Amino acid sequence: MGVKHELELPANLEPMTRHPKVPGPGEPMRVHHSMCFGCGLDAPVGLRLNVTAGEDFCVTATMPVVDWMQGGPGVIHGGILSAAFDEVMGNASILIGVPVVTVNLEIDYAKPIPLGSTLRFTAEVLGKSGRKVYVRSQAYLDGFEAPVAAAYGIFVEINLRKHFEGYKEGAVKAPQG
Ligand SMILES: CCCCCCCCCC(=O)SCCNC(=O)CCNC(=O)[C@H](O)C(C)(C)COP(=O)(O)OP(=O)(O)OC[C@H]1O[C@@H](n2cnc3c(N)ncnc32)[C@H](O)[C@@H]1OP(=O)(O)O
């Protein structure tokens, strides 16, 4: 069947503006946490996604599909792909200047993704309604015109400091030096 979902958007979407301080089109998005599984460069295991700002409310990213990402023999694990979508879509939300966490993710897996391939992601913020931010993402592989996977996410605006207040004690720190 392939990619089939359409995210149901509320009727009361608000106008959005791109935050003036986010990277410009073609520039790398900033790593939001060096120990993040999705993008952190100090994380002992992680996707280390490089996300690039696009026009308007869009970002792109690429991800080499390496051996430790294996699920079934020779192909990516679905949870790894889900984590990549989560990170790419979270980064898209940053373009509107809103700190968010994920509350809902839907993934369509249309084709097996072989180890050794490189996935190309696009993601765009579709709209905002109150604290909720609606985002869509697609993943492409060379040799396929249609997306090989797609995702829809709902992210919710948080107060960054308050949200993580009770958890910082247990945080894993980046190695020093
Ligand atoms: C900082 C930038 C980072 C960018 C990249 C990051 C990428 C990776 C992002 C992640 O993976 S984050 C980790 C996974 N997510 C979490 O751990 C979030 C866990 N959930 C929570 O902590 C709370 O649910 C949350 C603080 C988000 C919301 O709780 P609240 O008590 O503040 O709000 P509430 O429950 O009233 O929900 C706010 C709105 O969201 C809606 N909502 C909540 N959960 C939902 C859900 N599951 N599906 C759809 N809508 C949902 C809810 O209906 C409501 O809509 P309305 O404002 O219209 O009433």
From TrEMBL:
Residues 1-25 are annotated as: Disordered. It is found in: Cell projection, Ruffle membrane; Cytoplasm; Membrane. Residues 74-138 form the Thioesterase domain. One of its GO terms (cellular component) is cytoplasm. Its EC number is 3.1.2.2. It is a peripheral membrane protein. Transmembrane segments: none annotated. Keywords: Apoptosis, Cell membrane, Cell projection, Cytoplasm, Fatty acid metabolism, Hydrolase, Lipid metabolism, Membrane, Transit peptide. InterPro entries: HotDog_dom_sf (IPR029069), THEM4/THEM5_acyl-CoA_thioest (IPR052365), Thioestr_dom (IPR006683). GO terms for biological process: fatty acid metabolic process. Pfam families: 4HBT (PF03061). It catalyses: (9Z)-octadecenoyl-CoA + H2O = (9Z)-octadecenoate + CoA + H(+); dodecanoyl-CoA + H2O = dodecanoate + CoA + H(+); decanoyl-CoA + H2O = decanoate + CoA + H(+); hexadecanoyl-CoA + H2O = hexadecanoate + CoA + H(+). One of its GO terms (molecular function) is hydrolase activity. Belongs to the THEM4/THEM5 thioesterase family. PANTHER family: ACYL-COENZYME A THIOESTERASE THEM4. This is Acyl-coenzyme A thioesterase THEM4. The lineage of its organism: Bacteria, Bacillati, Actinomycetota, Actinomycetes, Mycobacteriales.
